[in-house]
Amino acid sequence: MADIRIYLVAISLVLFAEYSRADTYYAVEFVPSSPKAGEDFVARLSHVWGMHCWPATASVTQAGSTIVLNLAYTDACDADNVALTHDYPLGAYPAGSYTFDVKACVYNAPPLPSSCNIGLEIPLRIGAGKASATPVPTLSVRALVALVIGLLLSGVRSKKVQPAVRAFKSTARSSSGYGASSRLLP
Protein backbone atom coordinates (compact mmCIF):
# COMPACT_ATOMS: atom_id res chain seq x y z
CA MET A 1 0.00 0.00 0.00
CA ALA A 2 2.86 2.37 0.83
CA ASP A 3 4.44 1.66 -2.56
CA ILE A 4 1.29 2.78 -4.37
CA ARG A 5 1.17 6.04 -2.39
CA ILE A 6 4.81 6.81 -3.20
CA TYR A 7 4.10 6.05 -6.86
CA LEU A 8 1.03 8.35 -6.90
CA VAL A 9 2.93 11.17 -5.16
CA ALA A 10 5.79 10.88 -7.67
CA ILE A 11 3.38 11.01 -10.63
CA SER A 12 1.57 14.00 -9.10
CA LEU A 13 4.84 15.90 -8.63
CA VAL A 14 5.92 15.21 -12.21
CA LEU A 15 2.55 16.33 -13.61
CA PHE A 16 2.48 19.44 -11.39
CA ALA A 17 6.01 20.40 -12.45
CA GLU A 18 5.12 19.87 -16.12
CA TYR A 19 1.98 22.02 -16.01
CA SER A 20 3.39 24.74 -13.77
CA ARG A 21 6.32 25.58 -16.07
CA ALA A 22 6.03 28.50 -18.47
CA ASP A 23 4.76 27.48 -21.87
CA THR A 24 7.06 28.07 -24.81
CA TYR A 25 5.22 28.95 -28.00
CA TYR A 26 8.10 30.14 -30.15
CA ALA A 27 11.46 28.95 -31.38
CA VAL A 28 14.12 31.45 -32.44
CA GLU A 29 17.11 31.38 -34.74
CA PHE A 30 19.39 34.40 -34.73
CA VAL A 31 20.79 35.64 -38.04
CA PRO A 32 23.78 35.67 -37.90
CA SER A 33 23.82 32.76 -35.47
CA SER A 34 26.55 34.32 -33.30
CA PRO A 35 25.76 38.04 -33.05
CA LYS A 36 28.72 40.39 -32.61
CA ALA A 37 28.82 43.67 -30.71
CA GLY A 38 27.75 46.69 -32.76
CA GLU A 39 26.31 44.59 -35.61
CA ASP A 40 22.61 44.42 -36.44
CA PHE A 41 21.04 40.98 -36.18
CA VAL A 42 17.64 39.43 -36.74
CA ALA A 43 15.41 37.09 -34.74
CA ARG A 44 13.84 34.50 -37.06
CA LEU A 45 10.80 33.24 -35.15
CA SER A 46 8.83 30.09 -35.76
CA HIS A 47 5.73 28.98 -33.87
CA VAL A 48 5.60 25.54 -32.27
CA TRP A 49 2.26 24.83 -33.95
CA GLY A 50 3.57 25.45 -37.48
CA MET A 51 1.90 28.03 -39.75
CA HIS A 52 1.21 31.19 -37.87
CA CYS A 53 -0.27 34.65 -38.39
CA TRP A 54 2.64 36.97 -37.54
CA PRO A 55 2.26 40.62 -36.61
CA ALA A 56 3.62 42.74 -39.47
CA THR A 57 5.73 44.84 -37.11
CA ALA A 58 7.11 44.47 -33.63
CA SER A 59 8.91 46.67 -31.14
CA VAL A 60 12.15 45.88 -29.36
CA THR A 61 12.91 47.13 -25.85
CA GLN A 62 15.85 46.65 -23.55
CA ALA A 63 15.73 46.75 -19.77
CA GLY A 64 19.17 46.09 -18.29
CA SER A 65 20.39 42.77 -19.66
CA THR A 66 16.97 41.73 -21.04
CA ILE A 67 16.08 42.27 -24.69
CA VAL A 68 12.33 41.96 -25.30
CA LEU A 69 10.70 41.48 -28.69
CA ASN A 70 7.12 42.75 -28.28
CA LEU A 71 4.61 41.16 -30.64
CA ALA A 72 1.21 42.88 -30.81
CA TYR A 73 -1.55 40.60 -32.12
CA THR A 74 -5.02 41.79 -33.03
CA ASP A 75 -8.15 39.79 -33.76
CA ALA A 76 -7.60 40.26 -37.50
CA CYS A 77 -5.03 38.44 -39.60
CA ASP A 78 -3.75 39.59 -42.96
CA ALA A 79 -3.18 36.64 -45.30
CA ASP A 80 0.26 38.05 -46.25
CA ASN A 81 1.44 37.51 -42.67
CA VAL A 82 0.70 33.78 -42.49
CA ALA A 83 3.99 31.86 -42.70
CA LEU A 84 6.15 29.25 -40.98
CA THR A 85 8.74 31.85 -39.92
CA HIS A 86 9.04 35.62 -39.68
CA ASP A 87 12.15 37.79 -39.34
CA TYR A 88 12.20 40.67 -36.84
CA PRO A 89 15.24 43.01 -36.82
CA LEU A 90 16.61 43.49 -33.31
CA GLY A 91 19.31 46.10 -33.88
CA ALA A 92 22.85 46.21 -32.46
CA TYR A 93 23.96 45.78 -28.85
CA PRO A 94 27.22 45.85 -26.89
CA ALA A 95 29.02 42.59 -26.11
CA GLY A 96 27.68 40.71 -23.10
CA SER A 97 25.23 38.15 -21.78
CA TYR A 98 21.53 38.90 -22.21
CA THR A 99 18.15 37.30 -21.77
CA PHE A 100 16.01 37.32 -24.92
CA ASP A 101 12.25 37.35 -24.38
CA VAL A 102 9.39 37.19 -26.84
CA LYS A 103 6.39 38.95 -25.33
CA ALA A 104 3.13 38.31 -27.14
CA CYS A 105 0.23 40.66 -26.47
CA VAL A 106 -3.21 39.90 -27.87
CA TYR A 107 -5.42 42.96 -28.24
CA ASN A 108 -8.99 41.82 -28.78
CA ALA A 109 -12.05 43.93 -29.41
CA PRO A 110 -14.37 44.17 -26.39
CA PRO A 111 -15.92 42.19 -24.80
CA LEU A 112 -13.04 39.70 -25.33
CA PRO A 113 -10.14 40.14 -22.91
CA SER A 114 -6.69 41.30 -23.96
CA SER A 115 -3.57 39.75 -22.46
CA CYS A 116 0.23 39.60 -22.63
CA ASN A 117 2.42 36.54 -22.09
CA ILE A 118 6.09 35.72 -22.34
CA GLY A 119 6.17 33.11 -25.11
CA LEU A 120 9.92 32.49 -25.05
CA GLU A 121 12.78 33.27 -22.71
CA ILE A 122 16.32 32.17 -23.59
CA PRO A 123 19.89 33.26 -22.86
CA LEU A 124 21.63 35.28 -25.57
CA ARG A 125 25.39 35.88 -25.85
CA ILE A 126 26.65 38.77 -27.97
CA GLY A 127 30.34 38.36 -28.70
CA ALA A 128 33.06 40.95 -29.09
CA GLY A 129 33.02 42.99 -32.28
CA LYS A 130 35.13 42.43 -35.33
CA ALA A 131 38.82 42.20 -34.60
CA SER A 132 40.85 44.80 -36.39
CA ALA A 133 42.81 43.11 -39.15
CA THR A 134 46.55 43.66 -39.27
CA PRO A 135 47.51 44.67 -42.78
CA VAL A 136 49.73 42.22 -44.64
CA PRO A 137 53.02 43.81 -45.66
CA THR A 138 53.40 44.04 -49.42
CA LEU A 139 56.13 45.12 -51.81
CA SER A 140 55.87 47.71 -54.52
CA VAL A 141 56.47 46.52 -58.08
CA ARG A 142 59.97 48.09 -58.10
CA ALA A 143 60.93 46.41 -54.83
CA LEU A 144 59.62 43.07 -56.09
CA VAL A 145 61.64 43.34 -59.33
CA ALA A 146 64.77 44.28 -57.34
CA LEU A 147 64.25 41.30 -55.03
CA VAL A 148 63.87 38.87 -57.93
CA ILE A 149 66.98 40.23 -59.68
CA GLY A 150 68.94 40.02 -56.41
CA LEU A 151 67.89 36.39 -55.91
CA LEU A 152 68.82 35.49 -59.47
CA LEU A 153 72.26 37.11 -59.15
CA SER A 154 72.93 35.40 -55.82
CA GLY A 155 72.08 32.07 -57.45
CA VAL A 156 74.61 32.72 -60.23
CA ARG A 157 77.32 33.57 -57.70
CA SER A 158 76.59 30.49 -55.61
CA LYS A 159 77.02 28.24 -58.67
CA LYS A 160 80.54 29.65 -59.16
CA VAL A 161 81.40 29.14 -55.49
CA GLN A 162 79.98 25.59 -55.19
CA PRO A 163 82.90 23.75 -56.92
CA ALA A 164 85.39 25.38 -54.56
CA VAL A 165 83.30 24.40 -51.54
CA ARG A 166 83.07 20.78 -52.74
CA ALA A 167 86.86 20.61 -53.19
CA PHE A 168 87.42 21.99 -49.69
CA LYS A 169 85.01 19.46 -48.15
CA SER A 170 86.69 16.51 -49.87
CA THR A 171 90.18 17.50 -48.65
CA ALA A 172 88.86 18.09 -45.14
CA ARG A 173 87.40 14.57 -45.01
CA SER A 174 90.56 12.84 -46.10
CA SER A 175 92.71 14.70 -43.62
CA SER A 176 90.37 14.17 -40.69
CA GLY A 177 90.70 10.42 -40.76
CA TYR A 178 87.29 9.57 -42.16
CA GLY A 179 87.66 6.38 -44.16
CA ALA A 180 91.40 6.02 -43.31
CA SER A 181 92.80 3.40 -40.99
CA SER A 182 93.83 4.67 -37.61
CA ARG A 183 96.73 3.36 -35.57
CA LEU A 184 96.82 3.17 -31.82
CA LEU A 185 99.94 4.56 -30.26
CA PRO A 186 101.50 2.67 -27.32
What's the short version?
The chain has helices at 2-20, 141-176, and strands at 26-31, 41-47, 52-53, 58-63, 66-74, 82-83, 85-91, 96-107, 115-126. The protein is α+β, with helices and mostly antiparallel strands. The chain is elongated, with a radius of gyration of 38 Å.
Looking at this protein, list some descriptive labels.
186 residues, alpha+beta, 4-stranded mixed beta sheet, 3-stranded antiparallel beta sheet, 2 helices, 9 strands, elongated, disordered C terminus
Describe the structure.
- The chain is an alpha+beta fold and 186 residues long.
- It has helices at residues 2-20, 141-176; strands at residues 26-31, 41-47, 52-53, 58-63, 66-74, 82-83, 85-91, 96-107, 115-126.
- It has two helices and nine strands, in the order αβββββββββα.
- A four-stranded mixed sheet has the order 4-5-8-9, with no helix packed on it.
- The chain starts with a helix and ends in a 10-residue tail after the last helix.
- The model is unreliable at 8-22 and 178-186 (pLDDT under 50).
